[in-house]
Amino acid sequence: MTAPPVLDVADLRVSIRGDEGIAKILDHISFRLERGRILGIVGESGCGKSTLIKSVLGILSSGARIERGEIRFEGENLLAMGDKRLNREIRGSRIGFIPQDPYLALNPVFTVGAQLLEIMRWHAPKSVRNHREHLIALLRRVQLPDPEAALDRYPHQFSGGQRQRLVIAGALACAPTLIVADEPTTALDVTTQGQILVLLRELVEEFGLSMLFVTHDLGVVAELCDDLCVIYAGQSVETGPTVQVLREPAHPYTRALLACHPDRSEHFTGIPGLVPSPLKAPPGCRFAPRCTSARPACPERPPHYVAAGQGHAVDCILHEGSGA
Ligand SMILES: Nc1ncnc2c1ncn2[C@@H]1O[C@H](COP(=O)(O)OP(=O)(O)OP(=O)(O)O)[C@@H](O)[C@H]1O
């Protein structure tokens, strides 16, 4: 029997009740992260990346509701799991998290050692006997200078890149099988960003991890991710191996996004129109009002999932019946 995907998100719909009504923030999000691979979730600001991460980690705000779908982690539906088990066994243990801003992840009034050892006290596997030694070895592995001394220092005594290395070591300390990374290189300069991406790739291979890497940057996805899932306005529109999707994008939004990328375009071109508000999104494809190829049915009904190649799928009415 083949092992289930590390993460399998199927037809996820998340809504948030606010003053102006109920907004469907995520609607029809589906993707799979296979073992040992890095899956990039790529989308513009406001497309729902943070909401998706919070859904996977089970930390949605109180006004948010998961209306439909499943989030399966190693075959188990996280949405049917009680909070107690999520806290003890999954979040921070089998699923590690690397946030966008490492400074916010670390408490400024405690030493780094005190914080990371406290996390390990709750979440490290029993096989790790000496927490301090294990942590020092991890800090050395993420290339933090003088790891022993680092444990007695405070977060403000490190550079941004070093803080991100601390947080990465903290995420690894509890021996996760999945790492969820939320734009972990956005706040870093280009050189440090490159070093962290190389480090993450090495760690995934060395520790046998899988990684969900959320970003707005297609360049980062091209560099790091084996597979990608493109999200537009809360809907997944295209998934597949990165090389194939970037070479032969099937969804009009993916094509438009690529055309805007500075590496592919000599002149700055945006996508005409605006992302619809989740309060007023059409029932069908949310990109339809901006799509130059849209048909009358596109905003009316959700598209069916269509295979566009080996492991490559697109959610677009234009491809239905094409057998692409
Ligand atoms: N608590 C909330 N109440 C109402 N609307 C919300 C709430 N949280 C998020 N939204 C809306 O949901 C949409 C998605 O937000 P989200 O933060 O998930 O996007 P994002 O892709 O992570 O954006 P960014 O890259 O800018 O952080 C946005 O339109 C946002 O305004």
Automatic annotation (TrEMBL):
One of its GO terms (cellular component) is plasma membrane. It is a peripheral membrane protein. One of its GO terms (biological process) is peptide transport. Its main location: membrane. It comes from the Bacteria. GO terms for molecular function: ATP binding; ATP hydrolysis activity. CDD domains: ABC_NikE_OppD_transporters. Residues 7-258 form the ABC transporter domain. Keywords: ATP-binding, Cell inner membrane, Cell membrane, Membrane, Nucleotide-binding, Translocase, Transport. This is Peptide/nickel transport system ATP-binding protein. It comes from Enterovirga rhinocerotis.
